[in-house]
Amino acid sequence: MAANPISISELILETVKTPGETVVRCSGKITSSTTALLQSTVRGLIPETESIVLDLTDVSYMDSSGLGTIVGLYLSAKRQHCALKLINLNQRLKELFRLTKLSSVFEGHEDYLGYTPD
Predict the structure, then answer these.
(1) pTM to 2 decimals?
(2) Which of 13, 50, 105, 117 is the most exposed place for a label (fewest CB within 10 A)?
(3) How deeply is 39 buried, as exposed, middle or buried, from its count of CB atoms within 10 A (0-12, 13-18, 19+)?
(4) Residue 86: is its pLDDT beyond 50?
C-alpha cells in the first residue's frame, strides 16, 4: 500500500491503493477553489482500479462546486466501469446530499451515505 499525500491550501488528499480498490482520504474543504485537485486526482485513478472510495471523514465543508464535482466523478467512473463510493460523511454532508436529492445518485450505497428512504 502506497500513501501519497497531496495538498492545496484548504484540501488534503491521501491516496491508498489496494488490489481491489483505491481509497482517497479527503481532509478540509471541498469548494470551488479545491475541486480541480479532487477532480484531477480521482480521474487519474479511474483507469487503474475497479472501485474508488472517497473517505469524507475529515471534510468540514462542501459547497455546490464540490457537489457537482462528486457527481461528475461518479459519472466519469461509471462510464469507465469503475465504482465510486462515499464513506464517513458527517451529519452536515449527509443532510446536504439528502436535501439536494443527490443521495439518489448513489442509490444502493445508502449504507455509505447513512441515508435510509422513508
Answers:
(1) 0.81
(2) 117
(3) middle
(4) yes
